[in-house]
Specification:
About 40% of the residues lie in helices and about 20% in strands. With about 500 residues, it is of the alpha+beta class. InterPro entries: aa-tRNA-synth_II, aa-tRNA-synth_II/BPL/LPL, Anticodon-bd, Anticodon-bd_dom_sf, His-tRNA-ligase, HisRS-like_core, HisRS/HisZ, HisRS_anticodon.
């Protein structure tokens, strides 16, 4: 009788998901910690919503309004209701605010960070699961709250390690474009979204590509065709003229003055007035002209924005080892979304917010060498030279941890040589060695692994090597102080 074959699943990750290594996790934690500290200082309160929401709570407020319930990972609850993993952190906030609206202190200022999931085609740097970090103000109408979000974004960028010359925040008001669409008689939702999506691709496709998307449509390099907004020649010229005028630049006051001259009595008038107030507040807060600029071509792709919008773009360009530039573009964005809570309550509730993708932003900061605090504390490995003395080794590790160091007693198998190789592979700063001889004399040997690595690179003379104190002996009672002294000397 043939022996039944044992089934062994293949070890593989689902497409679009990633395993994050220790250095990546530490970098992301450092970034979230820096941003959270800013939010706390500005009076925002933390909130955590569940990973799952009912699918109808996400509804049409997914990026593609044509696919209202696609783009999410969904399952049916035991009562037959469809639930979906949250697509972002804003829709859950809207549900939370609507559910407890009467009891919320308004305006409600919250920040949140956590995983989000998107059932989209994965690609380079595009994952189906990632971390977002948001701050929102629910219940505050008027441009003052929007100006605060822009200033808040600037402080988060600085807290993350960027200099003012490393980034720029581009600000617009969606009502400016609504005014253009009004003048074209193109305010229906489908055409409006197609026009907005076309404009949103200006930086990537240029004027020629945008014009195709404003007309019949565009075929990309792969042969895929994107249906256009269907504007006639005059309509396309009107939109392209607006974009060209918006790129003329100037100070914030100069941009608003130019826009005011062409706004007329359309919806754009309210947008211009909002930008004027935002400029006054940003100026009062000391936000430089070159740090926050008014750029009427900024659209933001999500359909729920109703007023001021902004994007934070990296100006500093990190490079790959071969010298080629890394393209990060916009790393954070935000805007006003006054209609989101109304889906649940039927009552318009003003809201504005700011969000960034933690993984993407942390990768950009790491590439620039600007992510402070991402390195782990120095690690000390206590070598288990005598397995019969494990209690003593654990006691040493505990003392080191009590002093604020990372420390572990080696619990695996292997002789001292293998244990020191383990310490090297763990990138440990020190190894502590205490064998029979050291126990008898009341001492420990400390091996400075970082110094050893430096010496290996710079010293070729054996006698000079011997003169260096890479390994030294101290009384057992001075184990902790000796390591701390070495670390202090390194700064």
């Amino acid at each position: 009788m043939a022996k039944e074959k044992t089934f062994r699943p293949k070890a593989r990750r689902p497409r679009g998901f990633e395993d994050r290594a220790a250095h990546v996790i530490r970098a992301e934690r450092a970034l979230v910690s820096a941003a959270s500290a800013v939010y706390e200082r500005w009076g925002f309160e933390p909130l955590e919503t569940p990973a799952f929401e009912y699918a109808d709570a996400l509804g049409k407020f997914l990026p593609d309004e044509d696919r209202p319930n696609e783009g999410v990972f969904a399952m049916q609850d035991d009562d037959g209701q469809w639930m979906a993993l949250r697509y972002d952190l804003t829709a859950p906030l809207a549900r939370f605010a609507a559910e407890g609206f009467q009891n919320l202190v308004k305006p409600y200022r919250r920040y949140q960070f956590g995983e989000v999931w998107r059932n989209e085609k994965p690609g380079p740097g595009r994952f189906r699961q990632f971390v977002q970090c948001d701050a929102d103000n629910v219940g505050a109408s008027g441009p003052a709250a929007d100006a605060e979000m822009i200033a808040l974004a600037a402080e988060v960028m600085r807290a993350a390690g960027l200099n003012d010359s490393d980034f720029v925040i581009r600000v617009n008001d969606r009502r400016l474009l609504d005014g253009v669409l009004e003048s074209l008689g193109s305010a229906d939702d489908t055409r409006r979204m197609r026009v907005l999506r076309a404009i949103d691709k200006l930086d990537r496709l240029g004027m020629e590509g945008v014009e195709l998307l404003l007309g019949k449509g565009r075929k990309d390099e792969s042969g895929d065709f994107t249906e256009g907004a269907g504007l006639d020649e005059a309509g396309r010229a009107r939109v392209l003229g607006f974009l060209e005028a918006s790129k003329a630049g100037g100070t914030r006051a100069e941009v608003t003055a130019r826009l005011a001259g062409s706004a007329g009595e359309t919806a754009a008038r309210a947008g211009v007035e909002a930008l004027e107030e935002i400029n006054a507040i940003l100026t009062a807060l000391g936000i430089p002209e070159e740090l926050a600029v008014f750029d009427p071509s900024v659209v933001r792709g999500l359909g729920y924005y109703t007023g001021p919008v902004f994007e934070t773009e990296l100006l500093a360009t990190p490079t790959y080892p071969d010298g080629s530039p890394m393209q990060f573009g916009s790393v954070a964005s935000g805007g006003r979304y006054d209609d989101l809570v109304a889906r649940f309550t039927g009552q318009q509730v003003p809201a504005t917010g700011f969000s960034f993708g933690v993984s993407r932003f942390a990768a950009a900061l790491s590439a620039l060498g600007r992510l402070e605090g991402a390195d782990a504390a120095p690690l000390v490995i206590v070598v288990a030279a005598d397995k019969a003395r494990m209690a003593d080794y654990f006691a040493m590790a505990a003392e080191l941890r009590s002093a604020g160091l990372r420390a572990e007693a080696f619990t695996g198998n292997g002789n001292m040589g293998k244990q020191l190789k383990y310490a090297d592979r763990r990138d440990a700063a020190f190894a502590v060695i205490c064998g029979e001889e050291e126990f008898a004399s009341g001492t420990v040997q400390i091996k400075d692994l970082k110094l050893g690595a430096q010496l290996a690179e710079s010293i070729t003379d054996r006698d000079e090597w011997k003169e260096q104190k890479q390994q030294f002996s101290v009384p057992r009672s001075e184990l902790v102080s000796a390591i701390l002294t070495r670390l202090s000397a390194r700064g």
